[in-house]
Amino acid sequence: MKYFRFLVIIFFMSIFQISNAIENDLGIKITKNLRCLICQGQSVYDSDSEFANSVKILVSQKLDEGFSEKEIYSFLKKKFGEWILYEPEFNKNTYFLWLLPILMFLLGGVIVFKIFILRKN
Amino acid sequence: MKYKIVPFIVTFLFIVSFIFFFKGLKNSNIYIPSNDFEKEIPFFTTRLFNSNIKINSDEIFKNNKYYLMNIWSSWCAPCRDEHQYLMELSKEKNLEIIGLNYKDNTLNAKKFLNELKNPYSNIILDPDGLIAIEWGAYGVPESFLIYDKSIIKKIIGPLNENLVFEINGLIK
Question: Would an 8 Å CB–CB cutoff place A85 in contact with chain B?
Fold first, then answer.
């Protein structure tokens, strides 16, 4: 009986820790995807500036309130503009940025095809 | 003839990317948020600096007046520089200056006001910096000129003579 109680306690402790860890991981993931606006070149997660610390508090608060990751991003985007997000959105200003790697890849494929396959024939 | 297309494409891509990056060199790398910020003021609840009474934004900005909300802190050096301009603006009759005390120590803030005088008609507290985020502000000092619960002008950084002149023009 003694052992059983002990096991129950351990079981509940581990559950509590797992749920805590999941929540923290999402908070870390979000803050790593946000750009610190004062200390540019650093993410909010990495920075210890006043602004970054406030954003960290805000993100954990919003997560507690049940906001999803996307909702937090769009909230901050509305306040500070798209620049705060590390991943640029796909729109008319950025389509070149997004499509260039694919274009390069296709072009490379064409070159390889031309040089190696057509030459063999 | 078949293979001449490859050097042509490579040269073309090189030139395009060169122009692209060369132009990019001249871009400023200091970020300033765009001008199409939210015009409506955010709703928030906080405490008053002097009396610790809870207050919300509707009660603060309720009058048919111009408001200048100034984010300040005793530890911020540019706030000290802009203080004289706030004192100047506090003489205007149809302008009320609201201070948002950003992440400050109350004792230091009181010392700051005793030393440089108090231009604010109301001071509200923001101990975690969360209200500043609601306003889309990321540092101190920042000021917002408000009329009828919407933001007319957003000033990032300290006030100066030109800005005071501009504000005076806007509230006349």
Answer: no
